């Protein structure tokens, strides 16, 4: 593909900016937009350049995940078009030092980061940790940890906008060897930046990827506060997945800590926007992503959403290992019983992430067909989906509508101090989405009947 000059503003206006901050390192700070998403800020965002076009993970001029992985892991033992190149895959958990209890899942992400530090392979780990909303204006942010205790302090899932610009600037300024933890598009951005910046290439030695459904906006925290009866200005900390070994791992719990030390919590399924698949507060760029499992990372981690693992409240990871160096660390720890991991094949990994992969491959093909973005994306999925069942088409339309409208509705409710307006709208939207998805109620019956008629009218082949 020919080189093209693009600006951050063009990417943002096309709805393709994920807010990773790779382009902002060493420039002006990233800033919140009115929808609670982080975006590049300042006059420089209007300046088009070929170098920016090569490092933005959603740029049509950037290399795709397969190209990056082929260059990074040319000798990988195994390859699968759904999960990429890899050395081995596992299911299980950490068996030492409370990593499992301290994490949202099986504790593997924090364990690998800590092990890289313990073995002297890195001097620091860039990862997301809680921040002070009064001081920092946000609940979570990237930081660089240099000890096992600091790494463990950032454990657990964070469905909140974060960006890399500050830690990338620190990595440039402070010599050393670093690892970076991030969701697929953030790891891709780091890989693309490594090809443009020799200092980043020399100092970031390892990347640890997190399986991803989509990026939420900061408005999700405000929605929690509205629905839990907590004044937003009093909220000091948030947890999205409060672990309880006596409850299934997939029973998410929204948990807020207030300034007076009191807490408010609620199970996600009781929330108006508590169905993850409905895409409330989703970043628009996520509609055009085809990487679920962080295919460019040296190792990546997800939840084992299969029985009996999904019912185990202690948490269980699925792990895809791509770096031979990290694979040796993992194998050694298994032999020492510090890790309780069982080898699995690609079909097991795919089955644990079936919904996400369907949305990012089948769903992406359909979205590229019905709503192509204004820039010519470089995707590994081609437009299509004409032959999808009618219900699947309705599901993808419903998700797009919820993802699009949840932002302005919540912003309007915030501005007018009318939280009930957003919550009421969300309840109706969720009811319609679930009627379509699960064929519930009168709407579900209408769709089921229409699908039946459509199938009857198709010629037999």
Automatic annotation (TrEMBL):
<dbReference type="Pfam" id="PF04432">
    <property type="entry name" value="FrhB_FdhB_C"/>
</dbReference>
<dbReference type="InterPro" id="IPR045220">
    <property type="entry name" value="FRHB/FDHB/HCAR-like"/>
</dbReference>
<dbReference type="InterPro" id="IPR007525">
    <property type="entry name" value="FrhB_FdhB_C"/>
</dbReference>
<protein>
    <submittedName>
        <fullName>Coenzyme F420 hydrogenase/dehydrogenase, beta subunit C-terminal domain</fullName>
    </submittedName>
</protein>
<feature type="domain" description="Coenzyme F420 hydrogenase/dehydrogenase beta subunit C-terminal">
    <location>
        <begin position="177"/>
        <end position="346"/>
    </location>
</feature>
<dbReference type="InterPro" id="IPR007516">
    <property type="entry name" value="Co_F420_Hydgase/DH_bsu_N"/>
</dbReference>
<feature type="domain" description="Coenzyme F420 hydrogenase/dehydrogenase beta subunit N-terminal">
    <location>
        <begin position="90"/>
        <end position="168"/>
    </location>
</feature>
<dbReference type="Pfam" id="PF04422">
    <property type="entry name" value="FrhB_FdhB_N"/>
</dbReference>
């Amino acid at each position: 593909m020919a080189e093209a000059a693009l600006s951050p503003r063009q990417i943002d206006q096309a709805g393709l900016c994920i807010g990773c901050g790779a382009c902002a390192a060493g420039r002006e700070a990233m800033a919140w937009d009115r929808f609670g998403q982080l975006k590049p800020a300042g006059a420089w965002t209007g300046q088009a350049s070929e170098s920016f076009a090569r490092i933005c993970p959603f740029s049509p001029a950037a290399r795709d995940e397969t190209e990056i992985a082929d260059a990074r892991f040319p000798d990988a033992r195994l390859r699968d078009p759904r999960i990429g190149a890899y050395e081995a895959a596992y299911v299980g958990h950490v068996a030492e030092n409370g990593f499992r209890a301290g994490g949202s899942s099986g504790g593997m992400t924090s364990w690998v980061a800590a092990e890289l530090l313990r073995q002297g392979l890195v001097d620091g780990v860039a990862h997301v940790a809680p921040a002070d909303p009064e001081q920092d204006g946000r609940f979570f942010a990237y930081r660089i940890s240099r000890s096992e205790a600091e790494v463990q302090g950032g454990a657990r899932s964070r469905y909140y906008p974060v960006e890399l610009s500050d830690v990338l600037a620190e990595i440039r300024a402070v010599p050393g060897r670093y690892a970076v933890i991030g969701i697929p598009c953030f790891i891709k951005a780091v890989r693309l930046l490594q090809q443009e910046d020799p200092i980043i290439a020399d100092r970031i030695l390892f990347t640890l990827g997190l399986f991803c459904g989509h990026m939420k906006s900061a408005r999700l925290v405000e929605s929690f506060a509205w629905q839990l009866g907590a004044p937003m200005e009093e909220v000091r900390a948030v947890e999205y997945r409060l672990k309880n070994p006596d409850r299934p791992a997939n029973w998410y719990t929204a948990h807020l800590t207030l300034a007076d030390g009191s807490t408010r919590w609620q199970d996600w399924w009781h929330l108006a926007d508590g169905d993850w698949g409905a895409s409330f507060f989703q970043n628009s760029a996520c509609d055009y992503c085809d990487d679920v499992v962080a295919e460019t990372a040296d190792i990546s981690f997800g939840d084992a959403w299969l029985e009996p693992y999904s019912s185990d409240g202690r948490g269980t990871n699925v792990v895809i290992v791509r770096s031979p160096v990290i694979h040796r660390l993992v194998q050694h720890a298994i032999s020492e019983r510090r890790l309780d991991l069982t080898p699995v094949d690609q079909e097991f990994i795919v089955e644990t992430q079936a919904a996400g992969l369907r949305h990012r491959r089948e769903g992406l093909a359909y979205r590229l067909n019905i709503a192509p973005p204004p820039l010519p994306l470089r995707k590994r999925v081609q437009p299509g989906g004409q032959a999808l069942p009618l219900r699947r088409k309705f599901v993808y339309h419903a998700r797009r509508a919820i993802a699009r409208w949840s932002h302005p509705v919540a912003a309007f409710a915030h501005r007018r101090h009318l939280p009930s307006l957003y919550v009421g709208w969300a309840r109706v939207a969720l009811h319609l989405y679930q009627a379509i998805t699960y064929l519930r109620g009168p709407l579900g019956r209408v769709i089921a009947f229409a699908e039946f008629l459509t199938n009857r009218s198709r010629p037999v082949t």
